Amino acid sequence: MTSGALPRLEAPAWLRRMLRPIAIPTDWTRVVAAAVGVGSPQVVGLLTGRIDEAVLASVGALCASFSDVTGSYRFRLRRLAIAVVLGAIGFAAGAAAPDPLWAVVAVLAVSVPSVLASRLGELWSSGGAHMLTFCVVATGQRSPVLALHEQVAWFLAGELLVLALAAATWPVRGTAPARDAVADIFTAILRMFGPGNTVTARQRLTKALDTAHDVLIGGASMSRSRVRDRLHLIYLRATPVVEAAVSVAHAGITPPLRTREALAGLARCVRTGEIPPRFQPSPTESALVRALDEGIAELVDAFRDAKRSPAPGRQRERLSIGATTWWQVLRMLLCLALAEGFAVLAGFEQGYWIALTVALVLRPHSGSVFARTVLRALGTILGVLVAWALLALLPTGWWLVPFIVALAGKLPVALSRHYGLFSAVVTALVLLQMSQQAQFYPAARLVDTFVGCAIVLVVGYLLRGVRGGPSLRDGVADAVESVADYLSRSLAGAEHGRPALRRRTYRQLADLRSRLQQLLMSPDRHAEAEAWWPTIAVLERVVDAATEQAVRAGDTDLQQAQRLVSTMRTVNRRLRADPEVRPDSLHAEIDAIYHHMAR
Predict the structure, then answer these.
(1) Which of 39, 164, 292, 419 has the fewest CB atoms within 10 Å, measured from its CB?
(2) For the chain, what is the domain count?
């Protein structure tokens, strides 16, 4: 560095991850569904003069739009249907509260099943979160002119409108962004072997790897699904293929047609979910091409094993209520009670926004609470400024409808890419929606949001000592020990106590996964959490495979079973005895155990 030159400042990795949007392609079916679902009730309301009904239907459409994610057609409709039912239940509970005191009771009562639903899987977790969110909304948006059943009916009508629009997308249903991101890795590898600039092709490959990493792990919001775990396994197993392919391209070698067809087949199968055919390396004089073929063969085998893994993991989602879940329930109850109490004591006219902020930020299994709190605050500032400018420059009514439709269409894109952008869009959208019904004060909403964020941060900090628990490494060691115990009992064919041990093991892994999600955007723990993340996924697959073998009693080689259990216990001893042991080396050993069982 030359004298007098300023050192280059670079933001830490956790901050870059928190602020960087994920590069996910736009799903236009979701954009259209949200824009039409939220905007059309506003148009009908202005034409007929029934503004109260229009706002309720628009809010219902907003609830459904929150749950509309890109994925398989069946998954999308199931997620939306659950959100419609639970969202309507939550809204009815909030709207039925006759006074502020009963509103507090309703919100606290709904918060408990909302948090517990997070252990029933991704579908119910989303629905439970919306049940609480729109229960809070209903406590502050009760219509003075409509009966309770009419309010719920109009809210439900808006939800059903978005559900119907999503159902109509069958001819143009899209592929999940996570599938596309991983498949693009193999497409980028193929481009290195084609005509053109090899350097540019390698840069595209690097970008594809970074995008897949961001989609699978990055972002403030994390979803839990077996498909995502399978894609993460493929992403990890792609490393030897990528390294070998770069070496082949650098040497100026064009691999055989069957190798290129295998890479194209991998990309296609990742996108469609099909099982790829087995690939056998062919004899070749080139050591580089041979290494590439062997990497593809191992990746294909891992893909096939993961795709054909049994489904007892569904029982895990039903039975995974552990200590972390009850801590989340306690934290949610305490924060909501403080939010509601503060709003009442301070005399805030629409203080339910404080509780709404708490409900949105503390949604279980959605990543780091710290990151969501910061992004919620930043997004609210931006959203309030946008709404404030529009409300200051334009009269309410028809002039605001185009902006409401545009923001509604932007909602699905922001929801997929960045929680801060989503917070900005939804804040501006809700402010414009409510302005059609009555006077709405953006500055007050900004104060409410900051108070809610402060409650979450302060209470979360104070409860850190209450939560306690082992260190992350010790938590992984405890999970490995439980998996080893279950593996021993399952492979030995012992039935007594095995179901209870399976439930305990699944709960322990679910608690550990939740803890890792919280730490992924922690300023000082993100690297450690990301290093351990693959281990949790492979431990869950080991338990699934052990359950399958226990069901197929009599097919187990007892000597091999003893070796597998012994290896698992050795991993546990190394983990406890050697603080310098690398997570990736332990992951490789556990992954080898799984593949022995899956054969």
Answers:
(1) 164
(2) 3
